[in-house]
Amino acid sequence: MQLYNFNSGPSILPQEVLDQAAAAIHNFNDTGLSILEIGHRTSHFVEVVTEAQQIIKRLMGLDDAYEVLFLQGGATMQFMQVPMNLLDENGLAAICDNGVWGNKAVKEASIFGPVKVVADTADKKHTYINKQLDIPNNTTYLHITTNNTVEGTQWHQYPQTNALLIGDMSSDIFCRPTNFKQFDLIYAGAQKNMGAAGVTMVVVKKEILGKVNRKIPAILNYQKHIEAGSLLNTPPVFSIYVSLLTLRWIEAQGGLVEMGKRNQEKANLLYHTIDSLPAFYCPIAKEDRSIMNAVFFLTNPALEAPFLTLCKSEGMIGVKGYRTVGGIRVSMYNALPLSSVQAFCDLMKSFAEKN
Question: Is 18 helix (H, G, I), strand (E, B) or coil?
Fold first, then answer.
Protein backbone atom coordinates (compact mmCIF):
# COMPACT_ATOMS: atom_id res chain seq x y z
CA MET A 1 0.00 0.00 0.00
CA GLN A 2 1.26 3.45 -0.86
CA LEU A 3 1.79 5.72 2.14
CA TYR A 4 1.18 9.48 2.18
CA ASN A 5 3.25 11.20 4.87
CA PHE A 6 1.46 14.21 6.35
CA ASN A 7 3.30 14.07 9.68
CA SER A 8 3.77 17.42 11.39
CA GLY A 9 7.33 16.67 12.45
CA PRO A 10 9.57 14.84 12.17
CA SER A 11 8.18 14.99 8.69
CA ILE A 12 8.63 13.84 5.14
CA LEU A 13 12.05 14.19 3.51
CA PRO A 14 12.93 14.05 -0.21
CA GLN A 15 13.56 10.47 -1.34
CA GLU A 16 16.95 11.34 -2.78
CA VAL A 17 17.98 12.82 0.57
CA LEU A 18 17.00 9.57 2.29
CA ASP A 19 18.94 7.56 -0.28
CA GLN A 20 22.06 9.71 0.06
CA ALA A 21 21.89 9.67 3.86
CA ALA A 22 21.48 5.89 3.86
CA ALA A 23 24.52 5.48 1.61
CA ALA A 24 26.60 7.76 3.87
CA ILE A 25 25.82 5.57 6.87
CA HIS A 26 27.80 2.80 5.15
CA ASN A 27 30.45 4.88 3.38
CA PHE A 28 30.67 8.66 3.71
CA ASN A 29 32.21 10.35 0.66
CA ASP A 30 34.33 7.28 -0.16
CA THR A 31 36.21 7.57 3.12
CA GLY A 32 35.43 3.97 4.04
CA LEU A 33 33.89 5.30 7.25
CA SER A 34 30.27 5.83 8.19
CA ILE A 35 29.00 9.39 8.67
CA LEU A 36 28.07 8.08 12.13
CA GLU A 37 31.71 7.45 13.06
CA ILE A 38 33.78 10.23 11.51
CA GLY A 39 35.48 12.71 13.82
CA HIS A 40 33.53 15.94 14.17
CA ARG A 41 36.67 18.05 14.02
CA THR A 42 38.09 16.36 10.94
CA SER A 43 38.17 18.17 7.63
CA HIS A 44 35.47 15.79 6.36
CA PHE A 45 32.89 17.12 8.78
CA VAL A 46 34.09 20.72 8.94
CA GLU A 47 33.43 20.83 5.18
CA VAL A 48 29.84 19.64 5.83
CA VAL A 49 29.21 22.41 8.35
CA THR A 50 30.81 25.07 6.17
CA GLU A 51 28.84 24.14 3.06
CA ALA A 52 25.57 24.00 4.99
CA GLN A 53 26.22 27.45 6.45
CA GLN A 54 27.02 28.84 2.99
CA ILE A 55 23.81 27.46 1.45
CA ILE A 56 21.72 28.85 4.30
CA LYS A 57 23.19 32.31 3.80
CA ARG A 58 22.57 32.10 0.04
CA LEU A 59 18.96 31.01 0.51
CA MET A 60 18.39 33.76 3.05
CA GLY A 61 20.31 36.45 1.19
CA LEU A 62 22.43 37.23 4.26
CA ASP A 63 25.93 38.66 4.52
CA ASP A 64 28.70 38.26 7.09
CA ALA A 65 26.84 40.38 9.62
CA TYR A 66 25.02 37.14 10.45
CA GLU A 67 26.33 33.84 11.75
CA VAL A 68 24.76 30.43 11.23
CA LEU A 69 24.92 27.99 14.13
CA PHE A 70 23.94 24.34 14.49
CA LEU A 71 22.85 23.67 18.06
CA GLN A 72 20.95 21.07 20.05
CA GLY A 73 17.89 21.11 22.29
CA GLY A 74 15.33 22.01 19.64
CA ALA A 75 13.18 25.12 19.58
CA THR A 76 12.32 24.34 23.21
CA MET A 77 15.92 25.16 24.16
CA GLN A 78 15.69 28.40 22.20
CA PHE A 79 12.69 29.54 24.25
CA MET A 80 15.24 29.80 27.06
CA GLN A 81 18.48 30.48 25.20
CA VAL A 82 17.19 33.58 23.38
CA PRO A 83 16.24 35.50 26.55
CA MET A 84 19.33 34.25 28.40
CA ASN A 85 21.51 35.88 25.71
CA LEU A 86 19.39 38.95 24.95
CA LEU A 87 17.17 39.86 27.89
CA ASP A 88 18.02 41.17 31.35
CA GLU A 89 16.11 42.87 34.15
CA ASN A 90 16.45 46.29 32.49
CA GLY A 91 14.90 45.15 29.21
CA LEU A 92 11.55 43.82 28.04
CA ALA A 93 10.58 40.87 25.89
CA ALA A 94 7.47 41.52 23.80
CA ILE A 95 5.99 38.20 22.72
CA CYS A 96 3.08 37.25 20.49
CA ASP A 97 1.13 34.41 22.08
CA ASN A 98 -0.66 32.85 19.12
CA GLY A 99 -0.76 29.34 20.47
CA VAL A 100 1.17 26.53 22.12
CA TRP A 101 4.68 27.57 21.10
CA GLY A 102 4.26 31.29 21.72
CA ASN A 103 2.91 30.47 25.16
CA LYS A 104 5.98 28.38 25.94
CA ALA A 105 8.21 31.25 24.80
CA VAL A 106 6.41 33.57 27.24
CA LYS A 107 6.93 31.23 30.19
CA GLU A 108 10.63 30.67 29.51
CA ALA A 109 11.47 34.33 28.84
CA SER A 110 9.84 35.42 32.10
CA ILE A 111 12.59 33.57 33.99
CA PHE A 112 15.19 36.02 32.68
CA GLY A 113 13.46 39.39 32.60
CA PRO A 114 10.21 41.32 32.18
CA VAL A 115 7.80 39.99 29.55
CA LYS A 116 4.78 41.59 27.91
CA VAL A 117 2.35 39.61 25.79
CA VAL A 118 1.60 42.04 22.97
CA ALA A 119 -0.84 39.75 21.14
CA ASP A 120 -2.97 36.97 22.57
CA THR A 121 -5.40 35.16 20.29
CA ALA A 122 -6.90 32.84 22.89
CA ASP A 123 -10.17 34.80 22.64
CA LYS A 124 -10.88 33.00 19.35
CA LYS A 125 -9.06 29.78 20.16
CA HIS A 126 -5.98 30.96 18.23
CA THR A 127 -7.76 30.84 14.88
CA TYR A 128 -6.22 34.11 13.64
CA ILE A 129 -3.08 36.25 13.84
CA ASN A 130 -3.51 39.40 15.91
CA LYS A 131 -1.50 42.02 14.02
CA GLN A 132 -2.42 45.00 16.25
CA LEU A 133 0.65 45.02 18.47
CA ASP A 134 1.23 47.57 21.25
CA ILE A 135 5.00 47.38 21.62
CA PRO A 136 6.44 49.47 24.53
CA ASN A 137 9.34 51.81 23.80
CA ASN A 138 11.70 49.95 26.14
CA THR A 139 11.26 46.63 24.34
CA THR A 140 14.48 44.70 23.81
CA TYR A 141 13.00 42.25 21.34
CA LEU A 142 9.76 41.17 19.74
CA HIS A 143 9.34 37.40 19.45
CA ILE A 144 6.95 35.82 16.96
CA THR A 145 6.23 32.24 15.95
CA THR A 146 6.06 32.67 12.18
CA ASN A 147 3.96 29.52 11.69
CA ASN A 148 1.81 27.90 14.34
CA THR A 149 2.04 24.18 13.67
CA VAL A 150 -0.64 23.20 16.17
CA GLU A 151 -3.22 25.88 15.39
CA GLY A 152 -2.72 26.22 11.62
CA THR A 153 -2.00 29.96 11.41
CA GLN A 154 0.92 31.75 9.77
CA TRP A 155 2.31 35.26 9.53
CA HIS A 156 2.21 36.28 5.86
CA GLN A 157 3.58 39.76 6.57
CA TYR A 158 5.90 40.26 9.50
CA PRO A 159 5.38 43.09 12.02
CA GLN A 160 7.42 46.25 11.83
CA THR A 161 9.26 47.18 15.02
CA ASN A 162 12.18 49.26 16.25
CA ALA A 163 13.06 46.47 18.67
CA LEU A 164 15.04 43.39 17.72
CA LEU A 165 12.86 40.93 15.80
CA ILE A 166 13.15 37.27 16.77
CA GLY A 167 11.50 34.56 14.70
CA ASP A 168 10.74 30.97 15.63
CA MET A 169 10.57 29.56 12.10
CA SER A 170 10.67 25.90 13.08
CA SER A 171 7.72 24.88 10.94
CA ASP A 172 7.98 27.18 7.93
CA ILE A 173 11.68 27.78 7.43
CA PHE A 174 12.60 27.83 3.72
CA CYS A 175 8.98 27.31 2.61
CA ARG A 176 8.93 30.50 0.51
CA PRO A 177 10.91 33.67 -0.24
CA THR A 178 11.17 35.76 2.92
CA ASN A 179 12.83 39.01 3.95
CA PHE A 180 15.14 37.28 6.40
CA LYS A 181 17.12 40.51 6.89
CA GLN A 182 14.10 41.88 8.74
CA PHE A 183 15.03 39.54 11.60
CA ASP A 184 17.88 39.85 14.08
CA LEU A 185 17.70 36.22 15.18
CA ILE A 186 15.94 33.24 13.62
CA TYR A 187 15.79 29.73 14.97
CA ALA A 188 14.32 26.55 13.57
CA GLY A 189 14.30 22.90 14.47
CA ALA A 190 15.45 21.04 11.37
CA GLN A 191 12.88 18.26 11.44
CA LYS A 192 10.29 19.81 9.15
CA ASN A 193 11.73 21.57 6.10
CA MET A 194 15.43 21.31 6.80
CA GLY A 195 16.38 17.76 7.66
CA ALA A 196 16.26 15.26 10.48
CA ALA A 197 15.43 15.78 14.15
CA GLY A 198 18.33 16.47 16.48
CA VAL A 199 19.73 19.78 15.25
CA THR A 200 18.48 23.35 15.49
CA MET A 201 19.58 26.11 13.17
CA VAL A 202 20.17 29.53 14.70
CA VAL A 203 20.91 32.53 12.48
CA VAL A 204 21.93 35.57 14.51
CA LYS A 205 23.15 39.07 13.78
CA LYS A 206 26.45 39.24 15.63
CA GLU A 207 26.11 42.84 16.77
CA ILE A 208 23.15 42.09 19.05
CA LEU A 209 25.16 39.74 21.30
CA GLY A 210 27.18 40.47 24.42
CA LYS A 211 24.81 43.14 25.76
CA VAL A 212 23.30 41.44 28.82
CA ASN A 213 24.86 41.79 32.25
CA ARG A 214 24.56 38.16 33.36
CA LYS A 215 27.08 35.37 33.15
CA ILE A 216 26.05 32.83 30.54
CA PRO A 217 27.20 29.19 30.67
CA ALA A 218 29.46 28.51 27.69
CA ILE A 219 27.20 25.85 26.19
CA LEU A 220 24.30 28.35 26.13
CA ASN A 221 26.31 31.36 24.94
CA TYR A 222 25.82 32.15 21.25
CA GLN A 223 29.15 33.99 21.13
CA LYS A 224 31.01 30.92 22.35
CA HIS A 225 29.35 28.78 19.67
CA ILE A 226 30.27 31.35 17.01
CA GLU A 227 33.90 31.32 18.16
CA ALA A 228 33.93 27.53 18.01
CA GLY A 229 32.23 27.28 14.61
CA SER A 230 29.33 25.22 16.00
CA LEU A 231 31.90 22.74 17.34
CA LEU A 232 31.95 23.84 20.98
CA ASN A 233 30.92 20.31 21.90
CA THR A 234 30.26 17.21 19.81
CA PRO A 235 27.46 18.25 17.45
CA PRO A 236 24.70 16.00 16.05
CA VAL A 237 26.84 14.99 13.09
CA PHE A 238 24.28 12.90 11.21
CA SER A 239 21.47 15.44 11.62
CA ILE A 240 23.68 18.23 10.29
CA TYR A 241 24.65 16.09 7.32
CA VAL A 242 20.99 15.36 6.51
CA SER A 243 20.36 19.10 6.73
CA LEU A 244 23.14 19.69 4.21
CA LEU A 245 21.58 17.15 1.83
CA THR A 246 18.17 18.79 2.24
CA LEU A 247 19.59 22.26 1.65
CA ARG A 248 21.29 21.04 -1.52
CA TRP A 249 17.96 19.61 -2.63
CA ILE A 250 16.16 22.92 -2.05
CA GLU A 251 18.73 24.78 -4.15
CA ALA A 252 18.67 22.18 -6.91
CA GLN A 253 14.87 22.34 -7.11
CA GLY A 254 14.93 26.09 -7.71
CA GLY A 255 15.38 27.58 -4.26
CA LEU A 256 12.79 29.37 -2.19
CA VAL A 257 10.91 30.77 -5.18
CA GLU A 258 10.15 27.25 -6.37
CA MET A 259 9.39 26.04 -2.82
CA GLY A 260 6.93 28.90 -2.38
CA LYS A 261 5.22 28.17 -5.69
CA ARG A 262 4.80 24.48 -4.89
CA ASN A 263 3.66 25.03 -1.32
CA GLN A 264 1.07 27.63 -2.30
CA GLU A 265 -0.30 25.29 -4.96
CA LYS A 266 -0.70 22.48 -2.44
CA ALA A 267 -2.33 24.77 0.12
CA ASN A 268 -4.71 26.27 -2.44
CA LEU A 269 -5.84 22.81 -3.50
CA LEU A 270 -6.49 21.60 0.03
CA TYR A 271 -8.23 24.72 1.32
CA HIS A 272 -10.40 24.93 -1.78
CA THR A 273 -11.47 21.33 -1.23
CA ILE A 274 -12.25 21.94 2.45
CA ASP A 275 -14.28 25.07 1.66
CA SER A 276 -16.22 23.32 -1.11
CA LEU A 277 -17.37 20.38 1.00
CA PRO A 278 -20.09 20.98 3.63
CA ALA A 279 -18.85 17.93 5.55
CA PHE A 280 -15.67 19.82 6.48
CA TYR A 281 -14.88 23.31 7.75
CA CYS A 282 -11.76 25.31 8.53
CA PRO A 283 -12.18 27.89 11.33
CA ILE A 284 -8.91 29.67 10.58
CA ALA A 285 -9.19 33.22 9.26
CA LYS A 286 -8.58 32.92 5.51
CA GLU A 287 -5.90 35.61 5.44
CA ASP A 288 -3.97 33.81 8.21
CA ARG A 289 -4.20 30.19 7.04
CA SER A 290 -0.91 28.34 7.10
CA ILE A 291 0.47 26.93 3.87
CA MET A 292 2.37 24.38 5.96
CA ASN A 293 -0.24 23.02 8.40
CA ALA A 294 -3.94 22.99 7.54
CA VAL A 295 -6.13 22.50 10.62
CA PHE A 296 -9.80 21.72 10.03
CA PHE A 297 -12.77 19.76 11.39
CA LEU A 298 -15.76 17.70 10.37
CA THR A 299 -19.09 19.50 10.59
CA ASN A 300 -20.50 16.43 12.33
CA PRO A 301 -18.03 15.56 15.13
CA ALA A 302 -19.33 12.00 15.23
CA LEU A 303 -17.79 11.44 11.78
CA GLU A 304 -14.26 12.36 12.86
CA ALA A 305 -13.34 8.89 14.13
CA PRO A 306 -14.66 7.11 11.00
CA PHE A 307 -12.82 9.57 8.78
CA LEU A 308 -9.54 9.05 10.65
CA THR A 309 -10.06 5.29 10.39
CA LEU A 310 -10.52 5.64 6.63
CA CYS A 311 -7.39 7.76 6.39
CA LYS A 312 -5.39 5.08 8.18
CA SER A 313 -6.72 2.34 5.92
CA GLU A 314 -5.79 4.39 2.83
CA GLY A 315 -2.23 5.09 3.97
CA MET A 316 -2.77 8.72 5.02
CA ILE A 317 -0.25 9.09 7.85
CA GLY A 318 -0.19 11.75 10.57
CA VAL A 319 -3.50 13.53 9.91
CA LYS A 320 -4.98 13.45 13.41
CA GLY A 321 -5.04 16.92 14.96
CA TYR A 322 -2.88 17.96 17.91
CA ARG A 323 -4.09 16.48 21.19
CA THR A 324 -5.30 19.80 22.64
CA VAL A 325 -7.01 20.92 19.43
CA GLY A 326 -8.45 17.78 17.87
CA GLY A 327 -9.85 17.64 14.36
CA ILE A 328 -7.67 17.02 11.32
CA ARG A 329 -4.22 18.40 10.55
CA VAL A 330 -2.54 18.00 7.18
CA SER A 331 1.08 19.13 7.05
CA MET A 332 2.40 20.09 3.63
CA TYR A 333 6.12 20.61 4.00
CA ASN A 334 8.54 21.17 1.13
CA ALA A 335 9.14 17.51 0.31
CA LEU A 336 5.45 16.58 0.16
CA PRO A 337 4.41 16.19 -3.50
CA LEU A 338 1.25 17.76 -4.87
CA SER A 339 0.03 14.25 -5.74
CA SER A 340 -0.22 13.41 -2.04
CA VAL A 341 -2.47 16.41 -1.41
CA GLN A 342 -4.56 15.48 -4.44
CA ALA A 343 -4.98 11.93 -3.10
CA PHE A 344 -6.11 13.29 0.26
CA CYS A 345 -8.57 15.67 -1.37
CA ASP A 346 -10.01 12.82 -3.42
CA LEU A 347 -10.48 10.84 -0.20
CA MET A 348 -12.26 13.78 1.42
CA LYS A 349 -14.62 14.09 -1.54
CA SER A 350 -15.41 10.39 -1.51
CA PHE A 351 -16.06 10.44 2.24
CA ALA A 352 -18.29 13.52 1.95
CA GLU A 353 -20.38 11.92 -0.79
CA LYS A 354 -21.02 8.84 1.34
CA ASN A 355 -21.78 10.80 4.52
Answer: helix
Catalytically annotated residues: 101, 168, 192
CATH class of 255-354: alpha beta
User: What's the length of the chain?
Assistant: 355
Nearest to 207 by CA among 85, 72, 39: 85
Give the pLDDT means over successive 10-residue stretches in the chain (355 positions): 96 98 97 96 96 98 98 97 96 97 97 97 97 94 98 97 97 98 98 97 98 96 97 97 98 98 98 98 98 98 97 98 95 98 98 96
Write the class of the CATH domain 15-253.
Answer: alpha beta
- Tell me how far apart the alpha carbons of residues 281 and 249 are, in angstroms, rounded to a whole number: 35
Phi-psi region of 94 (alpha: psi -120 to 50; beta: other; left: phi over 0): beta
Indicate the pairing of strand 141-145 with strand 93-97.
parallel
Predicted TM-score of the model (pTM): 0.97
Alpha-carbon separation of residue 72 from 107, 122, 183, 198, 294 (angstroms): 20, 30, 21, 6, 28
CA-wise closest residue to 204 among 27, 91, 321, 56: 56
